Amino acid sequence: MADNRETMGFWDKLQKIDRRWIYLVIALAVIVPFFVRMGLPVPVTKEVRDVFDFIDNLGPDGVVCISADYSPSVAAELDPMLDVIIRHCFERKVKVVIMSLLLTGPGLVQPILKKAADDYGAINGIHYTFLGYRYGYSLVIMKMGEDIHKTFGADYYGTNLNDIPMMKNINSYKDINLLIPLTGSGFDPWIIYAQGPYRQDVAAGVTAVMAADSYPYLQSGQIIGLLGGLKGAAEYERLAHDEYKMPFRMATIGMESQSWAHIAIILFIIVGNIAYFSAKKKI
Q1: What number is the average pLDDT over the span 36-52?
Q2: Least enclosed by CB within 10 Å: which of 68, 73, 148, 198?
Q3: 280 and 34 Cβ atoms separated by less than 8 Å
Q4: Looking at the structure, do residues 118 and 188 belong to the same domain, yes or no?
Q5: Are 82 and 112 in contact (CB under 8 A)?
């Protein structure tokens, strides 16, 4: 009988635990993975592998155009995609053209591109070109199908595109192997004005909440692959690590942090319910 009372007392105390302990556990679950890899598995989906394989099969003459059409509010999900795709292209010696249709885009692209270029020894104008931002969205997409040089005129740093060695043979969509919009608000204009009329191959990177709405484009063949949220970026990092021993970076660390926080929350819910029903049973 005494043991039973002690057990009941334990569950009573558990219900009254200082919430600061809960906050501490959640904080540790979020912070520790940034310093210590837990090694959680990251299963790779077909839609992510298709994007990786497409770029992986391109040679030094291949061109990938990335449009960073997102704002800081979704950077936590899309920055890792931008980072790993750029690094994969540099690893494979694939030329990269980067642009943005949102005013906030260049400020997000610049530090990621510079760090990746420094790490791989990539040279501006030879291995990559940063076109920066152009106003007009759908109009810009349409004009790129006719003449990229006239659409942008100069790159982000003010250099005329005609004076950039890499851009001499990149004039329109016909010179781009793969177009990848990274967006938190939808990539429909790229399908309507680039993929449709010009038969441009398109892959997409979107936030996790947008991923479900993007699958019809994947199933119809209008996009060749899809990266959905931080998980999609982590899958891409897994492929890059397995194939080229590229280090795990933002996406994998972020996914581990997120996963351990979810595990901690689930455990708290389970323990809280046990404590509640045990105390109720005593009454």
Answers
A1: 89
A2: 73
A3: no
A4: yes
A5: yes
Residue 4 pLDDT more than 60?
no
- Domain membership of residue 274 as a residue range: 2-37+258-282
- Residues of the chain with pLDDT > 70: what percent? 93
Structure tokens at 201: 């191959």
69-115: pLDDT as tens digits: 999 999 999 999 999 999 999 999 999 999 999 999 999 999 999 99
Same domain as 211, residue 273: no
Lookup result for tokens 């980067």: 98
Q: Which of 65, 89, 70, 86 is nearest to 148 (CA)?
A: 65
Q: Quickly count: other Cβ atoms within 10 Å of residue 4's Cβ.
A: 9
Query: If you search the block for the tokens 């959905």, which residue do you land on?
Result: 228
pLDDT of res. 217: 95
- Domain total for the chain? 2
The whole-angstrom separation of Cα 250 and Cα 11 is 40
Nearest-angstrom CA–CA distance, 267 and 199? 49
**For residue 244, what are the β-bridge partners?**
none
